[in-house]
Amino acid sequence: MAKSSGVRRTVGNYLTQPAVRFLARTSITPSIITCFGFLLAVGAAALIVTGHLFAAGFVVLFAGFFDMLDGALARYTNQTTCFGAVLDSILDRLSEAVLLVGILLYVSDQSSVAVLLVFLALFGSLLVSYIRARAEALDLECQVGLFTRAERVIVLALGLLLNQIVIALAIIVVFSFFTFGQRLIYVWQQTRIMR
User: Is residue 88 annotated as part of the catalytic site, yes or no?
Assistant: First the structure.
């Protein structure tokens, strides 16, 4: 599980380094990147609501890139701050919620199954993030998990690009709750060792 976290980090660094080196020479801060990524998610949600799913899929992927870019820029330029980390975390949650609300509005008159999946996807993604935040507040490490935000963004984008929202939501629901279980067990194992 820790290995998959390292792979994600390596791939993320590879994708972001050229942009990070360029942005480091400008006055653009990591927090500006974070806010811009959130605005892209809002734009993607608007595209979803209006039925432009293919375009929304590309915007979701682009917003996901900015989600990786802000942290990479902060580390590269030594601008990591507690407030920046909190802002990033909050806007990440809001970005996911905005996208899922956009999907909810799009599917609300089409499929009750899709509506249920939207709510379950929202709960699952919040649980995955919450358990990590709660564990880290207790000084426990919790970066494990098969299906983190990066995977959810990719699956959601593919679902939009291929016009297969229900399938994408179902994948997100199943693997988000699986990841929540993984993290819960991992935290439990750490607390047993601490006794």
Answer: no
- In Å, how far are 42, 67, 117 from 73, measured between CA atoms? 22, 11, 35
- Residue located via tokens 């291929």: 162
CA distances from 45 to 34, 51, 96 (A): 17, 10, 10
**Model confidence, pTM:** 0.86
pLDDT of residue 7: 54
Domain 2-194 -> CATH class: mainly alpha
Catalytic residue among 67, 70, 88, 92: 92
| pLDDT given for residue 11 in this prediction | 57
pLDDT of residue 9: 59
- Residue 168 identity: A
Which residue's structure tokens are 């990147």?
A: 33
Tell me the C-alpha distance between 126 and 26, whole Å.
Answer: 34
Domain boundaries, the chain: 2-194
Residue 26 is predicted with a pLDDT of 80
Nearest CA-CA partner of 175 in 121, 130, 135: 121
Task: Label residues 26-37 b or e (16+ Cβ within 10 Å = b).
Answer: eeebbbebbbbb
- Residue 104 CA from chain centroid, whole number: 18
Grouped pLDDT means (10 residues each) for the chain, 195 residues? 54 69 81 91 96 96 86 81 85 93 92 92 92 84 83 94 95 95 89 70
